Amino acid sequence: MHYVVGSGPCGVIAAQALLDRGAAVTLIDAGVQLEPERQAAVSRLAALPPESWDAASVDFIRGSSASEGTDIPIKLAYGSDFPYAKGEMAQIIQDGSKCLQSFAQGGLTNLWGGSVLPNLPQDFEGWPISYEQMRPHYAQAARAMKIAGARDELESLFPFHAPPAEPARPSRQAEALLARLKANTGTLEAAGIRFGRSRLALRTEGEDHACRYVGLCLSGCPYSAVWTATQLLESLMKRPNFTYRPGLKAVRVESSGARARVICRSLNDDGNISFIGERVFLACGPISTARLVIDSLVAYGRPFRLQFQPYFLLPLLALENTAGVSRERLHTLAQIYLDILDPKISPRAVHLQIYTYDEFIRQRLERAIRPLGPLRGLTRSLFEGRLLFLQGYLHSDEAEPIELKALPAPSGEACALSLHARDQPRTRTAIRRVLFKLAANGRRLGVLPLAPMLALGIPGEGNHIGGTFPMRENPGGFETDILGRLPGLPGVHIVDSSVLPALAATTFTYTAMANAHRIAWTVAA
Questions:
Q1: Which residues contact 392 (CB under 8 A, 6 or more apart)?
Q2: What pLDDT, on a 0 to 100 scale, did the predictor assign at position 457?
Q3: Coil, helix or strand for 94?
């Protein structure tokens, strides 16, 4: 028996790889789910066409967003914060960081934006594995998520690793912007700016769960059109060699000889239960995995480096107005990708995602024009069809890692974690260069960056974090080998982002899943 800990994207894809190799798998999981009353509202809406929805149920599952210390909203799923392990997070001392944990079934894919791009070949420089070694595992992850995407200008830079599903229908704002980008393709490429339609883990085909363009992607789709790890978990549950054990929190792992052991605590009665098998695969998420490894190896007081992707939000003003956007049926995930390859900005690619009209843009616009009184209507008509948002990511090399330490807790309890983020002058410099680049090419891009409204993410915000136990060709200390093994735990394989040597600016989850599949597939052989 092989044991996988965690039902997030890395856990479920590792379990699938093991099953495909003929192994028996038990997946151990905290498995927290959406509250019953909210699930009932979601189910009611899912059973009806959008035209028959009642406003009260939609408002109930839409919920609201809030900001804690930044201008970047905290995402909820169907109006609930169930994806966050609030009790665990409250026990972490965070100094200048904002990292998250999840005990939810499906992990933080309950909240993600579904964007999917692989690393560039050069992003594997310094890794103990190559782009070519990862290609077949990108393909397997793509098939698991059924990536929807267009074969366009971006494909020469980021090839598809499996045939894509039908691309999502772009919004009218996105269509207008894409037309301008295509008219300036040569000039933009000469400036190091590549573009294309977004690639999304979004169901666009079929009848029951395909996207119906109801504009609730960021708050929770009643039709479950946006892929989550729970969807893959549900398919695994139908396989004969698979067992799912929710309600358990892993607290220790051990390895001796040809056997590995994982000790868990029940979330219902605080009792302990142990599982012994051939291998244990840890996919708890970087914070939970760090705590589990530190407690297991008694690595208290030692500093660890937690890498993160620097993250920012930037409002844009489109040069062309698009009328009637508030009445349009559309998806509200990323519509367009821009990727900047300019060594004057960064030696690594910068990844930008453009979002057109959505609920959050409407809320921000209404807050901004509220003081204008009778002029609000005119101002809304002038700006509603022009306002866009850009979400930007830099490579982890453009940031100083977060320092993670642990202090021993009372016997039987999890260690106490503290996270300390340093000042980030390199990040701020790179982002300023991005803003200058966008402003210099604004006419060709069709947008004006609203630089005074820039919102910088706190280190770790967005949960694109990892690299705590990086894979190395010749690992030392708390580094892992190419199968995610630490020297003190030979039968235990870390398969989440904790083992990534660096975090490329391109989308985070896809590479983490591909690497998890690679490790599990290789081990099972």
A1: 311, 312, 313, 314, 350, 351, 352, 353, 431, 434
A2: 94
A3: strand
